[in-house]
Amino acid sequence: MAPAARPVITQTLTMTSRRADLIFGTVHGFTAVVILVAVFGCLPTRYGPVDWTGAILAALECAATVALLGGLAWRALAARIANLCALALGLLSFTVLLVTATWLGGVYGQVGRGGAILLGVAAAVILPYLILLPAFELAWMGPESSPRS
C-alpha cells in the first residue's frame, strides 16, 4: 500500500502576529494623521495634485489601519498596497525636494539657501514616514506569496 499523500498547504498573504498587526495598524493611523496635517494644515495654498495625492494616500493608510486593527482577512493586502504607494510617493517627493533645494541654493545664492533649508526640512519630515516606515514594514511582511492550485 502506498503512503498517503501529504496535504499541500498553501500560504496566503499574512502578517506574522497579532502584535505586529496592532503595531503596524497604529503606525498607519499615525501616518495618515501626519499626512493630513502636513497637506491640509501646513501648506498655505491649495494645489489640486498635492491635495488629491495626500487625500488618497491618507485614505489608503486609514484603510490599512482599519484592516490591521480589526484583524480583517485582507489586512496584509491593504498594508502592502498602502506601503507601496507611500514608498513610491515618498521617494518621488524626497528626490524632487532635494533636487529643487540644490538648484535653489546654487542658482540664487544666499537667498536660495534659505529656501533650500526649508525644502531640506520638508524632505527630512518625509523620510521617516513615507520612506523608512513603509520599507521596514514591507521587509517585515516578506515577499508576497500566492496560493498555487
Report on the structure:
- The chain has 149 residues and is mainly alpha-helical.
- It has one domain.
- It contains four helices and no strands.
Describe how the helices and strands are arranged:
Layout: H1 18-42, H2 48-70, H3 75-107, H4 109-141
Helix pairs in contact: 1-2, 1-4, 2-3, 3-4
Provide a compact summary of the structure.
The chain is an all-alpha fold. It has four helices and no strands. The longest helix has 33 residues, at 75-107.
Mean pLDDT: 88
Instruction: Indicate the low-confidence ranges by residue numbers.
Output: 8-14
Going by helix content, strand content and strand pairing, the class is mainly alpha
Helix proportion of residues, in percent?
A: over 70%
What string, H for helix and E for strand, traces the elements in order?
HHHH
Sheet-strand content, in percent, reads under 5%
Structure summary, number of beta strands: 0
Largest sheet geometry: none
Rg, Å, rounded: 20 Å
- Tally of helical segments: 4
Distance between the termini: 27 Å
Tertiary shape:
elongated
Number of domains: 1
